[in-house]
Amino acid sequence: MSRTDANHLPINRRAAIFRALLAAVFALPLLLLAGSVFPREWPAFVDSWRVFDLIALERFFSSVALSAWTLLFSLILASPVYVVFLGAKSSLRRWLLLFSILPLAHPPFGVASGWMILISRIEQSGGGRLLFERRGILSQWLYSQPGGGWLLALCFWPIVFLFLALSAQPRRSQIDAARIGLTRRAAIRHVLWPAWREPLLAAAAVIVCLCLLQFETPSLLQLRSYSLEIFTRFSIPENEWKALLLCLPYGIGALLLAWAMHRAKRILSLTAGDPPFTSVPGNLRRIAIVLTLIVFGLSILIPLASLIAQTGSIAFTLQTMTDHAGRLARSVFYAGAAACIIVLIGVVYAGQRRAGRDILFPALTIALFACPGILLASGWLRLRSYWPGVLPFSVMSLSMLGAYVAHRILLGYAAGALLWRSYGERAREFEDLMEMKIADKIRYLYFPAFFRPALFAVVLTALLLWGDVAITILLHPPGGDTLAVEYFNLLHYGSEARTAAIGFMLLLGPSCVMAAVFTAIALSRKIWLVNG
User: How far apart are CA 283 and CA 289, in angstroms?
Assistant: First the structure.
């Protein structure tokens, strides 16, 4: 007999209903899209598979090559930061972990535009960010696969660093034993590489998936991209079925993410025993510190400085910020509201007691994360078409938030699992012994335990939603676009100074949020020390 709560509803049945509702909400738009664009005649269905021609294969392998270059440069950029992390004190480690999230929160096309401005000033006397004339070595390199991989790696290298930093580190006893009985090559092979292998492979899986979804940066660099081909085909109504077929190879990304999530449950856990290895040779540490400062400068300072220099004056930048205050407010609202919903769903879902293994919902969240955002946007647009009459502004906004949540619900699933794991199984057993209503549990048990870490999860999720273009460009209400969409559109035809000012706002937003997070952490610890 299943256990019941204060509302006399079997918990297993309640969890099943909750999962079914979530699956229906997330999968219904895609099912409607597939059903509405499916060819009605067999010859048309057979002919549609010709979409996988040599051009499509060439663009797919071009995206794979771009992912490979991004992986290589991400590993190079993350290595010195990880060395600094190994040799740092625990207090400095926490700040380094938080600060490393900032490059990941910057939209890659915004960072790319900053570097395009810099190279244009070096080689073309300030000829503009678009660099249509490839007259210099840097300009030609920027428009190549390695150049695109470099620009994406400036945003994605924190993934490699975070997987390494949050995984089980080599222990001091292992390093000491390796120094005594093993050569340097043998120590790397038998001690260091086993500790780093799975985090690196999991980070590689995530980066490959994110690179396959990129279409904004390749479009700026005029690179052949598989996701850009899908985006173009979805823009033509009669090609929607062919675009849907082109999304099938993204199942590879879903499988890679599934493997990474399976490994993350183990590699992101802290190990017991002696303290982790923190001794780094002095010369290596000093070199790593210098290289770390260079990495953060390349990822953050150079794009921001290039954009602010292109605006021409501080007064013009402030005026542009004032003119786009509405878009800035909408961007903050959409990203913040979607992040709150994502984390709330993840916490509620992870808190449900389930009988047996639950595979359907995690598989659905992985598949939604790995599929192109334009596919989800097309599905929600199809769902909106069934609304009788003219759609209200609120319904359009809700549909866009729904697409946001569907695309990034995997982040909420991961956050919920981590939060309940930190809450502890003993605390769950203790609350089972207490005769409390669900409202009292939320007020006296869950809220004090979850508020601060859940707030951090909301901030991080909102930062990752901040620069979305694929979903917003198709679903935003008339006159309700975001700062990222405005900037991406102006990158192709807008004036240099005005576009650079908007880009500066787009990159400055995450920086201000992270500064506020740092301040809040410092103040909360100071208050705790005073009161403690």
Answer: 10
Which residues have CB under 8 Å from 255's CB, separation 6+?
A: none
Minimal CA–CA distance to 109: which of 464, 471, 506? 506
Give 283: exposed, middle or buried? Use CB within 10 Å, 0-12, 13-18, 19+.
exposed
- Contact indicator for 69, 145 with CB cutoff of 8 Å: yes
The mean pLDDT value for 173-202 works out to 67
How many Cβ atoms sit within 10 Å of the Cβ of residue 148? 28
What are 4's strand-pairing partners? 10
For residue 187, the one-letter residue type is: A
Residue 500 makes CB contacts below 8 A (sequence gap 6+) with 113, 117, 129, 306, 307, 308, 310, 311
Quick one: tokens of 259? 């493997």
- Write down all domains in the chain, each with its CATH number in brackets: 1-38+312-532 (1.10.3720.10)
- Beta pairing partners, 10: 4
Q: Which residues pair with 276 in a beta bridge?
A: 171
Question: Is residue 524 very low, low, confident or very high in pLDDT (cuts 50, 70, 90)?
Answer: low
| Tokens coding 519 | 């301040």
Neighbours of 467 (CB within 10 A): 28
Q: Please list, in sequence order, all residues whose beta carbon lies within 8 angstroms of the beta carbon of residue 97, skipping any fewer than 6 positions away.
A: 85, 162, 165, 166
Q: Tell me the three state secondary structure of residue 269.
A: coil
Phi, psi (degrees; rounded to nearest 5) at 215:
-130, -20
Task: Give the number of other Cβ atoms within 10 Å of residue 390's Cβ.
Answer: 6
Q: Containing H/E element for 503?
A: helix 496-531
Q: Which pair of tokens denotes residue 165?
A: 């930093």
Rg (CA), the chain: 24
- Helix (H), strand (E) at residue 72: helix 54-87
pLDDT tens digits, 412-452: 888 888 888 777 766 766 666 677 777 777 777 788 888 88
- Interatomic CA distance for residues 214 and 212, integer angstroms: 6
Q: Tens digits of per-residue pLDDT, 465-477?
A: 998 998 999 899 8
Q: What backbone phi and psi angles, to 5 degrees, belong to 276?
A: -70, 160
Sign of the four-CA dihedral 33, 35, 36, 37: positive
Burial class (CB in 10 A: 0-12, 13-18, 19+), 502: buried
